[in-house]
């Protein structure tokens, strides 16, 4: 009668053929039949082999052959070079005097790491991802339902408005479909990624469990942990569902709000926008095939450092002489404001109430001009000087501030103020790296219709766009415009289509990007001589100021149906 040991031996086949095993190589941890022993020795003739009967086998770590000394097995691991080494490598080879560790100890550490990774993936990450998977399956259905409700409400309200109302609701439906598509794309993308990662993690668990059983050092040593990638991926998806409100007062007016889009219809059936609403209106705008210069305005400033439009036909401008002048589209001076000091004027902007704001870097103040005199709104933090600024549609103020650092250059960041209170600092990305490059040049700032903050980083020669939470969305380096010279951005604005327009002083053109940072076109046929300052009026014309002349060119590049 066969013993249990002999039964096990008969059930194990040779690793080189299908015959029952009789022998075992302790050195290579390989089961062999009598016939294959010779072949095994010949295949690995440079190495010594401890061949024993199968029942006398020893389970031990397989030490790899040294790459530099054939016939020698590696017994240690070089901690400096992270490679297995043999005795000769240590005595007189390239790893002499390097810090070493027994190969078995290195193998034990690696297997412990694999076991820990596998345990966390199985017990924590996979359940978390499965939970998110269920959540987003539900979110897809809810999103469909929410947008169906919005479209139904839109249809009911349409009946209350007359002929001219069609344009407004066409716009609403377009925005709704765009948001719906965008939200569902985000959900589907994230959902698919979660399912893919669940599959990958299950596969890794399976591979890791095999590795944990393996005694082959080379296989275990190749293990590359992906745990950090799995940990870092999970986050909540921010969906942008526009609110939908209407107001009907018998005999007065009809009003409607859909996200950022607002319109009013009065008794005369004339539509208008609320003063603080950005440019989504009932007319449909599109870019002109060929732009045209509406007018060229002569000013007293050379260089012209800043332009801030007021309404449809006026703008505040400034240069290096510490005065700010309000002119109309014909160049007629309407008003002049003088800065308190002989230096310090560094930026201007206009509030939604059409009041002038200006920054004074010497006094560290941001001021509002009333009755021809600057009044301090707030003072920037100690040692931080304000430069360029931008007034948002919601009444907040974005200010570029800078501070001299120990490297004798300037650290830059953007502060969001509400009243005198700091609401937000935009300076580092989610990895802790600085968003804006150190340097003494100004950051030009504007706000897009979706709440993104668009920044022309003149120190890095890039445009950086962050969302309203300060998270970097993308950057633009001008390469896709295929211009001969390097991209040197200056003034920056956004328009009714949520496109981004930035002045390129080096290539003497304007770059136009969509709200996702995709390059659309360049405006380079309007004699733009070193364009520097940039603003947009309420008729969506660009006011371009130049650094080497006293001129402003007003450019028409959009048309509406």
From TrEMBL:
Keyword Transcription regulation: no
Residue span(s) of domain B box-type: 9-54, 66-103
Superkingdom per UniProt: Eukaryota
Gene3D superfamilies: 4.10.830.40, Classic Zinc Finger (3.30.160.60), TolB, C-terminal domain (2.120.10.30)
An annotated Gene Ontology molecular function: ubiquitin protein ligase activity
Keyword Cell division: no
Keywords recorded for this protein, A-Z: Metal-binding, Zinc, Zinc-finger
Extent of the signal sequence: none
InterPro entries for this protein: 6-blade_b-propeller_TolB-like, TRIM45/56/19-like, Znf_B-box
Protein name (database record): Uncharacterized protein LOC111111540
Species for this entry: Crassostrea virginica
Encoding gene, per UniProt annotation: LOC111111540
